[in-house]
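Hi support team,

I've been running sequence recovery on a batch of backbones for a student project. Most finish fine, but this one hangs at about 90% for roughly twenty minutes before it completes. I'm not sure whether the input is malformed or the queue is just slow. I've pasted the structure tokens below so you can try to reproduce it. Let me know if you need the job ID as well.

Thanks,
M.K.
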């Protein structure tokens, strides 16, 4: 699948200082690129508020993204307590 990064997720990830967490984010994004369907990704849950909004858990953080055709648009990466306030 094709991956698109929004400006917001770029800012969110730049704030992260933990190198292990950054490595996990990179691993998840590489896995997203390699799959052909969203169902093949482990730990992905569809959000009920938006039709094509999803999230995956990475430690205490959540990676929020949208699916459009075979393109994943990475939208936000925030702590669990904060992400549902701003995403979707």
């Amino acid at each position: 699948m094709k991956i698109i990064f929004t400006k917001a997720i770029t800012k969110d990830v730049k704030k992260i200082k933990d190198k292990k967490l950054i490595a996990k984010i990179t691993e998840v994004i590489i896995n997203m690129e390699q799959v052909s369907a969203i169902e093949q990704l482990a730990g992905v849950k569809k959000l009920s508020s938006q039709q094509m909004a999803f999230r995956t858990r990475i430690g205490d953080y959540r990676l929020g993204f949208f699916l459009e055709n075979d393109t994943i648009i990475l939208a936000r990466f925030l702590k669990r307590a904060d992400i549902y306030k701003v995403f979707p």
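--
Follow-up from support: It reproduced on our side and the slowdown came from queue contention, not your input. The mean pLDDT is 93. No action needed from you.
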